[in-house]
Amino acid sequence: MIRRCNEESGRSDGSVQQKPGRRILGYLIFLSVVHANAQTNKDMADKAAMRPVDEFIQSEMATGKIPALAVSVYRNGRIIYEAGYGVADRENHVAATPNTPFYLASVTKALTGTSLVLLEAQHKIVMNRPVNEYLKGAKLHSPVWDTSGATVLKVASHTSGLTTYNRKCAVKDRACKVSTDTAISRYGVLFWPAGDHFDYSNIGYGVLGKLVGDVSGIPFDQFLEREIFHPLGMANCYLPLTGELRSASAVNYDQTTGQLSNIEVSDTPGASSARCSSHDLAKLGAFALKQPLLDQRDILSPTQLGELLYSDSASAGEHYSFGWDRNQIDGYSGLFAQGGTSDSFALLQLVPSEHIAVAIVANTGTTLPFEIANRIVARLLPVLPSKKIDSSAPATPVASALEGQWTGQIKTWSGDVPVSITITSSHEALAKIGADSATNGSCEKVELSASRFYCVAHGSLGIPDGPKSPYPIELELYLRQGRLMGAATTSGGVQLPSWIELSREAPKTTVSAQ
Hints:
Blueprint: H1 20-61, E1 68-75, E2 78-89, E3 94-95, E4 102-103, H2 108-121, H3 152-156, E5 168-170, H4 180-187, H5 202-216, H6 220-229, E6 264-266, H7 269-272, E7 275-276, H8 278-288, H9 302-310, E8 325-329, E9 332-341, E10 344-351, E11 356-362, H10 368-380, E12 404-412, E13 415-423, E14 429-433, E15 441-442, E16 444-448, E17 452-459, E18 471-480, E19 483-490, E20 497-504
Antiparallel strand pairs: 1-2, 1-11, 2-3, 4-7, 5-6, 8-9, 9-10, 10-11, 12-13, 12-20, 13-14, 14-15, 16-17, 17-18, 18-19, 19-20
Helix pairs in contact: 1-10, 2-5, 2-6, 2-9, 4-5
């Protein structure tokens, strides 16, 4: 008997045999369905895990203390949760969303740090070369210390010898001008030897932002857009050098008064001027975790990312690396970039071992983002025992080496100011700044050690860009070469440091009558 061959399979027994290609296709379809179901289940589990966090945030927002807040959570290659809360701009009725750009404050430093590693990868800078070699305008300077020790890496790790600095101008105040070059020429002073100790400095990252522009040949804001924001798909990030905000951006509100804050521009945009959405900060976290999303390019190699996150200063217990610091969160080793003012807060928390990034932004001063990040991590991961840190400080001995009368000058950019300080054995101090006897008074918050003196005095340094006189002046001095040297920094909203140097007065002797 002749059997008819099946046209599909070519078999003569009448059964159907699928071609190998169709079997593979069917198997792939089956796997995709299984994966989709598993992903759906995981999405549902993640949303369920975040529900208590959402309820907590809703309850905090109901107090009215925070006008707006946005949260985005990344884990293992995808954004698993994000939401906006409140009103980003009350005056224009703009609701907060995960795509709303918020002021980042010092999280900007992580963007500046990334820019530096990119320039190094492009062979345009060397981290261990003096930062002054790359600046086209004003340079760092010091009356005593060698500026060649202030390398790019030391400036980035806050160990170059620079100190506290903060100055901004309201956009509507046309008499107030900002200039990074002017800031460097007046306040880019090395107050300590390079590498001596960690001293967080906004002017340092202002210098580095200017370096990026000088070396790349394009303005810093354009470099960020071309080299970081665009390739990483961070569409709602920008650096408003002129203070002009994009539409639908969050504005800021003072945490004490609740009033709308002035839009400001800074002398140091590389330190604290960028604006980003929580969604885009989470994407920055994905990049840092070496797990970029589908619309992101690998702009740094794994080795270069390691340098970005772990080239720390390791000074005085600090581990600061190009805008990133270290912490413990629910027993896990974390990395974070954080910035905050009286009218803003931003946090990007990473848990590298678990491939988690949590981005939280708010448009007022608050520490709530830390609590939210802790709750998110606790919902996603089992709690591990935290490492105990001994925070107890040894008793400070009486600093007899510094007792006595010290006199000298505070050298400001506009002239010298006479100063005298009397340090007693009971850890008290008197300070007179300037010729006005009204500034002669006791120092507050005195700290003494064998070689360091710190206090808060009151007076005026006579600098035109300083705060309204009289104002607090922080004095931080170290005993070096038989003299007290260091920084006298204005306080009261504007922090401007000037060099101070004092010599010990010889004890007065009395001559008895013969």
